[in-house]
Amino acid sequence: MDPALPAALRVAINLRLEGRPREDLARRAGDLSEGYRQGRASSALVRGVEDALAYALTRTPATYAAVRRALEETHALDPDFRPLSLLDAGAGPGGAGWAALDAFPGISEVTRLDHNAAFLDLAGSLAAQGPEALAGARRLQADLAAGDLPAESRADLVIAAYALTEIAPGALPGAIGRLWGAAGSRILIVEPGTPEGWRRGLEIRRELITQGARILGPCPHAGPCPIAAPDWCHFSQRLPRSRDHRRAKGGVAPFEDEKFFWIAAARAGPHPPAPSVSRVIAPPRTSKAGVRLRLCRPDGTVADVDFPRRDRAALVRVRRLDWGDALPEDGPPGVGGQ
Ligand SMILES: C[S@@+](CC[C@H](N)C(=O)[O-])C[C@H]1O[C@@H](n2cnc3c(N)ncnc32)[C@H](O)[C@@H]1O
Fold first, then answer.
1. What pLDDT was estimated at residue 269?
2. Residue 330: its pLDDT value, please?
3. pLDDT of 195-210, one tens digit each?
4. Nearest CA to ligand 1 atom 8
5. What is the 3-state secondary structure (H, E, C) of 223-282?
C-alpha cells in the first residue's frame, strides 16, 4: 500500500496552487489547523475555495493516507469484498474517494456528499482529470445531521472520513443511522486519533452494533472496549510531505505521522467469516530478548505479549508487524507484563 497521494491528485492540487501566494496559503492553513485543534467545524473555517485549497494542501495528504491504511486493514479481514459504488460522506476535497479507487479500482460509481459547496466544487475540479469514476462523480449538497439523505446516496461502500467529528454529539446517532441506511454492504468511519476521536469512535461502534451491523475492525470482538482512559486506542500512518506541504505547515521533516482511529462494519458477515485476529494497538517494542506487542485480542482483553528471539517460529510471525496491523490467531503465545 502506498500512503502517498496518487500522482494525478498531487498534480491537480499543484495546478490549483499555481500563482497563489504561498504566504496566504500558509496563513489559511495555520488558521485551519488552529481552528480544528480548538474543535471548530469546517463550516466555520472553510468559507471559500481558497480555504478549501489550503485544506487540500495541508490535510488531504494525511487524511488520504489514514483512509488508505484503514481500507488496507479492512481488506485484509474481508478480501472478497469488491464494491462497485461509493458514497464519500463529508467528502471535503474528495481524498477518501481517491483512496477507495486506489484500493478498489472496480468502483464505477461515486457520490460525494457535503454541505459545503466550496469543498464540493474543489473536489470536482481536482478529480476532473482523475479516474473516470471520480471525474464523473455525483455531487450531493446535503446535511448529514438532519433529514433523510437523498436516495442517490446509497452505495455498496460508505466512507465518512474526519466528518463525524464535526457533527454535534446529539446529532451523531441520527447521522450514523443515515450513513448506515445508505450503506448497501460496508461502512468505514475514520476519525482523528485523539482521545476525543476514540470516544466518538466507540459511540459510533455502539450505534452501528445497535443498528445490526457486524464490526469488522479494528476491534477483534464486539464486546466492551478493554482500553481505559487516560489510554486511548488509535493508530498511526507515516506519509511523505511535499515541498509545498512543508512550506505551508512551516515544518522541515519530509514526512509526517497521521494519528487516526477507524471503525469498519458489514451489513452481513463477510463470506467466509473474517479470520480471527489480534490487533497491534501500540508501537512494537523490540529488544535483545525479542519483540513485545500490545495486542487487543478476540477474547476482549488487551495484553502485552512477548515473542522471544529463541522462539524462531513466533518471531517470524511478528517481526514485520507494525502498530495497527492484525496478527492472525495461531495458538496462545506467552503473555508479558501489562
Ligand atoms: C475535516 S473535513 C474532512 C474532509 C474529508 N473527508 C477528508 O477526509 O479530508 C470534514 C468534512 O465534513 C463536512 N461536513 C461536516 N458536517 C457536515 C454535515 N452536517 N453534513 C455534510 N457534510 C458535513 C465538512 O463540510 C467537511 O467537508
1. 66
2. 67
3. 999 999 999 999 999 9
4. 161
5. CCCCCCCCCCCCEEEEEECCHHHHHHHCCCCCEEEEEEEEEEEECCCCCCCCCCEEEECC
Domain 7-266 has CATH 1.10.357.10: no
What residues are in contact with ligand 1 under a 6 Å CB criterion?
A: 41-42, 59-60, 63, 90-92, 95-96, 114-116, 119, 143-145, 161-163, 166-167
Q: Do 90 and 114 meet the contact criterion of CB atoms below 8 Å apart?
A: yes
Fold of 277-328: OB fold (Dihydrolipoamide Acetyltransferase, E2P) (2.40.50)
* Domain boundary assignment for the chain: 7-266, 277-328
Which pTM was predicted?
A: 0.93
Residue 294 DSSP one-character state:
E
Could you identify the atom of ligand 1 that is nearest to the CA of residue 67?
8
CA 114 to centroid of ligand 1, rounded, Å: 6
The cell for 289 is: 530478548
Cβ atoms < 10 Å from Cβ of 258:
21
Residue 324: partners with Cβ closer than 8 Å, 6 or more residues away: 69, 73, 218, 235, 236, 237, 279, 280, 281
Task: Summarize pLDDT for 155-197 with one digit per residue, the tens.
Answer: 999 999 999 999 999 999 999 999 999 999 999 999 999 999 9
Query: How far, in Å, from the CA of 88 to the mean position of ligand 1?
Result: 10
Q: Percent of the chain, pLDDT > 70?
A: 95
Question: Which residues in the chain show pLDDT less than 50?
Answer: 331-338
222 DSSP 8-state letter: S
7-266 shares its CATH topology with 277-328: no
> Which of 5, 36, 166 has most ligand 1 atoms within 8 Å of CB, for mutation?
166
Nearest-atom number in ligand 1 for the CA of 116 is: 25
- Give distance in angstroms: CA of 91 to centre of ligand 1: 6
